[in-house]
């Protein structure tokens, strides 16, 4: 795994541990889902249902694949070596990427405006400065919008263990895990 990907893993763990108790469990995904849905007030019921399902699948997949001791929680040690495995997580990541990007496009014009992008990414837990850096890396148009497809692809790239120098690397901070 590339160094950049390892840093992304550490950040993802800290974000998935939404309640900050040092492990990932089902409650973390419920908490994160609620925060994201609060930020998506203009999205329709279908988009909200899709993101709920995507977060639920994330948890189910993580629990099935990584909860080595079956205790209902995932530690950083269980998480770190396997989470960027495309064989195990590719479909889950794709579902999440498409659901989150669609949630950011409530008017279905294929574009995501910066304010909603920032709100959704903040709800997930990313740092605001880094969110703006990511949005800028996606090369917004003159009206400060990025393509839904660009964001979805960027999410998928974020979870790729062999990629470096991607827009998503701008999300990595010196957060302690």
Summed up, the helix count is: 8
Widest sheet: strand ordering? 1-2
Low-confidence stretches: none
Strand content: under 5%
**What structural class do you assign from the helix and strand content?**
mainly alpha
Tell me the radius of gyration: 15 Å
- Would you report the number of β strands? 2
Order of helices and strands: HHHHHEHHEH
Distance between the termini: 19 Å
In helices, the fraction of residues equals: 55-70%
Biggest beta sheet summary: 2 strands, antiparallel
**What's the average pLDDT?**
90
Principal-axis shape: globular
How would you describe what is shown here?
The chain has a two-stranded antiparallel ribbon with strand order 1-2. Helix 3 packs antiparallel against helix 5, helix 5 packs antiparallel against helix 8 (148-158) and helix 6 (114-124) packs across helix 7 (128-137). The chain is mainly alpha-helical and 177 residues long. Helices cover 59% and strands 3% of the residues. It is built from eight helices and two strands.
Task: Give a quick set of tags describing it.
single chain; 177 residues; mainly alpha; two-stranded antiparallel sheet; 3% strand
Write the layout of secondary structure elements.
Elements: H1 3-16, H2 26-39, H3 45-66, H4 76-79, H5 86-103, E1 111-113, H6 114-124, H7 128-137, E2 145-147, H8 148-158
Antiparallel strand pairs: 1-2
Helix pairs in contact: 2-3, 2-6, 3-5, 5-8, 6-7
